[in-house]
Amino acid sequence: MAEPEWRVVNRANWDERVAAHLAPESNYDLSGLRAGADALHAIEDRELGPVAGLRLAHLQCHFGADTLALARRGAEVTGLDFSAPAIDAARDLAAELGLAADFVCADIYAARQALSGAFDCVFTTWGTIPWLPDIPGWARVIASLLKPGGFLYFADMHPAALVFDDETGDGVRPGWFWPYFHEGAFEVDDPRDYANPAAVLRHSKTHQFVHPLAAVVQALIDAGLRIEMLHEHDGVAWKAFASLVEGEGRLWRFPDKPWLPLSYSIKARK
Asked: Which of 58, 134, 160, 256 is positioned for an S-S bond with 67, CB 3.0–4.6 A?
């Protein structure tokens, strides 16, 4: 069976982003991680809870910065990503820092086949599900990885915020971009990178998806998970709009008023 176009296109884009995100001019600042500091943002730091001694799967781990932060907190952690360059970079970073973590290159929908055993926690945050077409399938994979009593911790940009974009705005606030209830992929062609202003991506096309909040919650419930926490936040982990300013907890917010939720987080237990 031929590989879906969305995956081929998105993987080429993310393979190229790895070098851009590890470049000195990138906003991915690894100096704190290298110095022994905690790399997690304020939201997950406040909500995740202790992970020492837990067997943890970090899905869509990119080059492993958060994976290694979780390992430093004492978790037995495995990171999974579909980008081979990202996994290579993650293994190099783990070796550099002397931290124990496993890294597996596999598509998220094949995570159950790629990872052995059951996990106490599945962790997946920041820029993950907008790249995935099938949220019920995503939820089923998460449920299959968790042992009874294990939990998911998830945080990402709020789908209400994904409706907007600077390109259609008035220069002060973002404007309408794509509909909240759109079904199917949006095909985007943008050579810019969100973390490296100097980068010009050759593989500039991506397929992206908006998943309404209720669809995510219902998918997790249908997969057999119990929602224990659902929070909406006025900050997000990257400068999603030009008007946002960085503040407490390395989160980006509107400078005047909390106009709309910029991110959300869920804890759900099997």
From this structure: 58
